[in-house]
Amino acid sequence: MNIQTxxxxxxxxxxxxxxxxxxxxxxxxxxxxxxxxxxxxxNKTQVPKIEVIKDYTxxxxxxxxxxxxxxxxxxxxxxxxxxxxxxxxxxxxxTLSHVPLPQFPSSGNKLKRIFLTQVDFFIENDSLIVLHDGxxxxxxxxxxxxxxxxxxxxxxxxxxxxxxxxxxxxxxVDASFPVINEISSSIDRIDKELENRQSSKTIEDISITRxxxxxxxxxxxxxxxxxxxxxxxxYKQLNGKMQPYWSNIFDHLQKIWDRLEDNxxxxxxxxxxxxxxxxxxxxxxxxxxxxxxxIAFPFVIVNNLYSMNVAGLPxxxxxxxxxxxxxxxxxxxxxxxxxxxxxxxx
Length: 346
Hints:
11 helices, alpha+beta, Beta Polymerase, domain 2, six-stranded mixed beta sheet, single chain
């Protein structure tokens, strides 16, 4: 079973990774957890929320992750081929604030899409049960730290399961900052590409970036009121001496929200500029084709007229007059081009 447990004092940390029917059955038989909540996790029908039950408190949250990039051979890139942002997301939380942001290539990379993964926290009096898909590195890292050293068990678990849940949530929220950093880097890269050239890849990048911002919005928006209520002391089971700590998470979420709003405005402005450039280019093409058609029209008329085998065409028996007519047509073409030049149409 994908269930691991570590204990420190009266506190237990139960880490459940990618639970299936076997793990759900074990939790149902050994803990006072509602079958409805366990089934909801399997069916992924829950939205971010807090529910206070008699025996436990349930916190359901969503967090972002990048889909694995696809290699040139069509296979998913292995661990040793991780992108800079994926390597950054696996850095331990303790050292995350001291790591410089990765440098992203200016071209040649396909933007990755952001997806959301759900994490359920079941907080009992003496235990914390965490259900997750195993995608988010901070959860397994904190559990590994608690397994290895007494220092980390005391640090994360010494103040009970609520404090342990706070530490995990705080690490997950902080791990979202590199995601918003990559969105910002992607917008800067798209802006520079629009200055140099415009291609179908640029349009695709704009579309993916706008989608990523919307997905990120759907994660942050329901979490803000949840942690605002916790900060204000709405849930007694989560407050007490823990109340000052929750404001830290709320502040980080607010910063992410503000940066998302700024990035949304930037990418919308870039998208409008891109549409204006496309419209201008289309108008230029139509203008060019109009000029060519206007110049060629007299030649086409005369050519079609004198190409018919019809007797009695005027001047058909006098080549010099025919050449004179062609000269007039050529002169009219020059006049048309000059007029277009005068009107600054070409």
